[in-house]
Write a structure and sequence with these properties.
The protein is an alpha+beta fold and about 240 residues long. It has a single domain, classed as Carbonic Anhydrase II (Roll). It has 4 helices and 16 strands. Strands 2, 3, 4, 5, 6, 7, 10, 11, 12, 13, 14, 15 and 16 form a 13-stranded mixed sheet that branches. It has a 3-stranded mixed sheet with strand order 1-8-9, with no helix packed on it. It starts with a helix and ends with a strand.
């Protein structure tokens, strides 16, 4: 991994690494202080009253990758190899990692999904973008099945040497419409200035896969936050 990739990965993962080591937050008490309690563009939100807009498609450029799987005390996180990313309206964001929440942190018109995957990206200017893939109970998810079978034990991290492609986590290319809005990290330090892309089409996860995640994390979703003056847009496709 080159020096730039190491820096980008470390900067985004720093919050989860520090806070997971016992520095004072949990999902049982979600008043986390600082911008988490005072910010005006906090995530997640209940997506309501979205305005239809002529938004550009998200161009996904995800390549095959081995992973480092980390059980960080708050979720299962998969650190991705450099070289994959998304481009939106001419701006590229590199994929750094993805992780899971149960139930989904985002709601759509008051309804949460069974789980959600957050794919975290970073642009050259330091701006973050998160693609959220909602998961609803149904057929087994092949990628999730592979990840769950390599869940870290003991050391809380493991190398996943079998390659996967993060595009396998997404709806097919004809169903990648999305909601978008300004927001924040959903864990401390709750940094604002993120762009969120919540895909409209959910993917499936089996009851057995939900049970396995629940054994470690029965509820690792931050409650929805006030929308305040934010505008939520939804793609016309």
């Amino acid at each position: 991994m080159n020096k730039i990739a190491v820096f980008l990965t470390a900067s985004v993962l720093a919050a989860s690494t520090v806070w997971a080591s016992g520095h004072g937050w949990s999902y049982e008490s979600t008043h986390w202080g600082g911008v988490c309690d005072s910010g005006q563009q906090q995530s997640p939100i209940d997506i309501t009253n979205a305005q239809s807009a002529n938004l550009p498609p998200i161009s996904f450029d995800y390549k095959d990758s081995t992973l480092k799987l980390v059980d960080n005390g708050h979720t299962l996180q998969a650190i991705y190899a450099p070289g994959s990313g998304i481009t939106v309206d001419g701006k590229r964001y590199e994929l750094l990692q993805f992780h899971f929440h149960k139930p989904s942190e985002e709601k759509v018109n008051g309804q949460a999904s069974d789980m959600v995957i957050h794919l975290v990206h970073k642009a050259a200017d330091g701006k973050l973008a998160v693609v959220a893939v909602l998961l609803k109970q149904g057929a087994a998810n092949p990628v999730v099945e592979k990840l769950w079978s390599h869940w870290p034990q003991g050391s809380k991290e493991t190398e996943f040497k079998e390659t996967i492609n993060a595009s396998q986590l997404l709806p097919d290319a004809s169903n990648r419409g999305y909601f978008t809005f300004a927001g924040s990290l959903t864990t401390p330090p709750c940094t604002e200035g993120l762009t969120w892309f919540v895909l409209k089409t959910a993917q499936s996860i089996s009851p057995e896969q939900l049970v396995r995640f629940s054994k470690s994390y029965p509820n690792n979703a931050r409650p929805t936050q006030p929308i305040n003056t934010r505008v939520i847009k939804v793609s016309s496709f």
